[in-house]
Amino acid sequence: MLIPVRCLSCGRVISDKWEKFEKEVKAGKDSKKVLDTLGVESYCCRTAIISNVDLSEEISHFKRKTIAKD
Q1: Which of 15, 34, 37, 63 is placed for a possible disulfide with 5 were both Cys, Cβ 3.0 to 4.6 Å?
Q2: Which tens digits make up the pLDDT trace of 39-59?
Q3: Rounded CA separation 5/8 (Å)
Q4: Which domain holds residue 21?
């Protein structure tokens, strides 16, 4: 859903690079080159960014159900 703040394997901060990465890839640039320019070098961080799927738009359509208390 949301990009993790830190890489789950090495602990480096990756969330600050997500918006720039997503914007550049949607513009048609190669994801490898975008990650290189952002300075993401380790495989674990690259995997965490590339494999992230932004589902916030789909989730926002669902309403929270309230449970009636007796």
Answers
A1: 15
A2: 999 999 999 999 988 777 777
A3: 9
A4: 15-57
Whether 57 and 1 have beta carbons less than 8 Å apart is answered as: no
Read off the tokens for 43. Answer: 């495989």
Q: Which helix (H) or strand (E) holds 48?
A: helix 43-50
Among 28, 41, 63, 9, CA closest to 17: 41
Assigned domain for 39 exists: yes
For 19, 48, 52, 57, 70, the CA distances from 2, given in Å and listed in that order, are 11, 11, 8, 11, 35
Any domain includes 64? no
What is the pTM assigned to this prediction?
0.74
